[in-house]
Amino acid sequence: MPTVDRTAVLDRLVAPTSIALFGVSRDRTKLGHQIADGLLRGGYAGRVVLVNPRGGEALGRPLVPDAAAYGCDVAMAAVPGTRLPGVLRRCEELSIGLVVSCASGFERRDSPLADEVRTALAETGVRLLGPASIGVYSPAARVNLTTLPDLPARPDGGVYFIAQSGGMAYHVGRRLARLRCGYDVYLNIGAAYDLGAREAVDHAAARPTTGVVLLYLESLAGGDGLLTSIAAAARAKPVVALLGGSTGHGRQATISHTGAMLPPGMRAAALLTDAGALVVETLPQAIAAAAALCGTRPVPVPLPSPAPPAPMPEPTHPYDAGPGSPPRRVFLLADGGGAAVTMADALVRAGLQLTEPSTGTGRVVSELTGGRPGATGNPLELDGLAERDLTVYRRLVDAVVGSGEFDAVVIAGYLGGYARLNGAHLAATERAVAVDLARLARRTPIPIIVQSSFVTDDGDAAQILRDSPLRWVEWAEEAAALLSTPGRGAPGDVSPTASAVRADLTAVHALVMDAFTSAGVDHLLGRRLATAPAPTEGTWVLKLPGLAHKSRLGGIELGVAAAEVPAAHRRLYDVALVNGIAPDVWLSRQVDVQAEVVLTVWRTDEAWTGLTLGTGGTSVELAADTVTGRATANVDELHGMLRRTRFGERFGREPAMLNLLAGVVTVFRHRLPWLAELECNPIVVGQNGTFVADVLGTIQDTRHGRS
Predict the structure, then answer these.
(1) Which pTM value belongs to this model?
(2) Residue 89 in contact with residue 120, Cβ under 8 Å?
(3) Helices within 42-141 (DSSP H only)
């Protein structure tokens, strides 16, 4: 068979005319049956061949020998990994040039089985997505070749989500739908033995229906080639990147998940940023940025979060009794590689410890997970085990709590949603597991936190978990904030990322900065201190963009000498944790300030824009020296408005000031249509020029005008 182009083949994958499903069974608990069910219920109109040499019937269709699949565009191989080389060779004989494999067991890329797969690929010319891929989802073509039958579909989706983890597909898709956005394509590259992130990025860049490319990467496999593709894509459309494994334990979870590892997080982020991607740290930031950048549709607030449970119990261990005590020892249990990686990163960033269990506890954990290699550590990734036996949650949590070695247990994944995603036959067991976990939470002073994308669902298990003493949160950062600040209130009060639409202020800050830079608006919005070396000379400003009212809350430090930057960074890090936000510190150079002005531009549901202009800085409320009117980018009109303020009497004729104000209004109106309001305070006037020094953006809510 001639070799099929590595990029063009993805056109066939997202819009095939015929699909062969290998490994379909009459047993509804089997993966092949679930994939076929999702494809057929999704309304795919092309030819579907259900392959099973034993014959019979499933889902009202015949099960046939593989010869009946001759010439199909795509084969989905829901078969064990040991059978994958044979399926690849058989597909060559059947003139099927593309195979999707969801087989697990490929964590080690130097194993004999991995070598067999690579040899089969080289000898046949067949292209492979996977292994360890949950597949592809293309709503426009009604193609759902994933293990998730209930992915949200929107006809106007424009997000091309390329992920190394399959577990994020449902969560991201669901939140995008709440933000009036959705998938153009979801593509899970898995272990990427053949087709990988580079081919997917090239495909997304060329696809006219894609508005924004969203990446979740646990590896920069592809090296300079991948970065070159990202740079080319970023010139055509926005690229948002979330890196998994940026911390030590996150990398450990990454290795056990896909067998790949990112370089140190700061370096990887710097490489992607240099290539033109917007690099974010959390999944809520990624979703908010993708929705905001995908076209010009407004972004409404999703449904409210459920009522908060009772406050977290106070710590009971002697060493964990007050400020300055050592970090809490947390055991992380996850069913999904992406969930394990992102949660591990969030916990470590919050100063928590993912300590290894003792030899005895590790032996018990191994026995409870069937003795799988590597199933003794922390984080513990179940790799689909829970889908086959949900009671493993109850037994593992009971063993970890009983060991006395940990101060908290975190379950990450989609507990409360198994019956919805994997079949109603799991409903009774899932409900029983939820009841058992709730009972265990009542008996132990050790906090048990469940992170799941189903916090707002109304299923029985979700309702039991919601009403129990367990803490029930949607985002990894909420769990981290709860454990790093004991006794704090509801999840929504702890973390600004409790809802994606709250559009983490740091992410908005970065998006506005990029818009200003590309439009030539002079600014001092700076850079993330974590992604660049500390300065060696000069005077600097350090601030927390994720904190409103920074001056009042200690979230900004002015006039910091280069030698004092590390100490100021540590102080702001502590301020962030106290206020329950990500400790994301930004650095910008200090300028000699002669005056400060505030400019706030907003838009309404009636499609008109206004502005407030006048004396700015920390005393804007006291000065009351502002004027409000229609938003305009006309320099003469801005000059006329400034003349009505005391500030304008001195600086209202400065061309640099007027041109900067006009530039900000222009950017807001034409480059930031997803913002309801943009406050620039202060805009500073100095001897070396006029600059925007800080911004606060608010994402639109079509019901209330702002988020």
Answers:
(1) 0.65
(2) yes
(3) 84-93, 112-124
